[in-house]
Amino acid sequence: RDAELNEINQLKEKTKAPGEFQNASLFSDLPLSNRTKMGLKKAGYKKMTEIQQQSLPLSLCSRDILGAAKTGSGKTLAFIIPVVEKLYKECWTPLDGLGALLISPTRELAIQIFEVLKKVGEFHGFSAGLVIGGKSLEEEKKRIFRMNILVATPGRLLQHLDQTVGFDVSHVQILVLDEADRCLDMGFSKTLNAILGHLPTERQTLLFSATQTKSVKDLARLSLKKPEYVSVHEKS
Ligand code: ADP
Ligand code: MG
C-alpha cells in the first residue's frame, strides 16, 4: 500500500507536463503504473504505434486530445491507457462510482473496446461494464451503479441518463469519444450533445476520429478544452 502511494506520487509528478518521454517509442518508456505495464506486457504490446506515440505523452498529462488516425492504427490503446492511469492516479476505488465514460458508435465496437480494457486493466481493481442495449434495460440498470468505467453506445447511454434514477455521472474524470465521425454519420449529434450536458465540465476529454469533418470539428469545439491536435497520415 505504501509502495503504491509512493508510485502514485511519482507518476503524478512525472505527468504534470510532458517530459523526456515525449520521444518514447516503447510503452515501457512511458510513466505508467506497474499494473498497466503488467497488463500491456501480458497482452504482448511493446512498441507503440504512431498515434500512440504522439498522443499518450500528452493524454497521460491530462491534456484534451483531438486525434485523427485511420482504422487499424491503434487508437483503442491510445485512450484506454490514459483512462486507467487517470483513475489509478486519483486512487479511484469501486466505491467512488463512475469515473470514466467511453462512447463508441456501435455495439460491436464497444465490445471490442471492452475486451481490450479487460486485458490491459486486468491488474487494476476497477469495475467495468458495457451499456449497449440488446439486453434488458432493467438488467443494465441494476449493474450500472457499480461501475467505475463504462463503455457505451450513445442512444442507450442517454436513455439511462434520462431514465435510470440515481445514475450519477457528475464525478466523471475522463470522457472518450471514439469514432466520432461515425457517431455523427449515424445521426448521434443531438444525443452526444445531450450526453455532454449531463457531464461535469471539469474533466479530461479524448476525441478520436478517422476523419476530420466539419461536424467533428463542431463536436470538438463543444467537448474539448484547449485540445492537442494529433493526426497521423500513414505513408502508403
Ligand atoms: P483503431 O481503433 O485505430 O482502428 P485498434 O485500436 O483497433 O485500431 O488496433 C488495431 C490492431 O492493432 C488491433 O489488433 C490491436 O491489437 C493492434 N495494436 C494496437 N496497438 C498495438 C501496438 N502498440 N503493438 C502491437 N499491436 C497493436
Ligand atoms: Mg477503433
TrEMBL record:
Residues 25-53 form the DEAD-box RNA helicase Q domain. It is found in: Nucleus, Nucleolus. Residues 56-230 form the Helicase ATP-binding domain. Residues 1-14 have a biased composition (Basic and acidic residues). A motif (Q motif) lies at residues 25-53. Residues 1-14 are annotated as: Disordered. Belongs to the DEAD box helicase family. This is ATP-dependent RNA helicase.
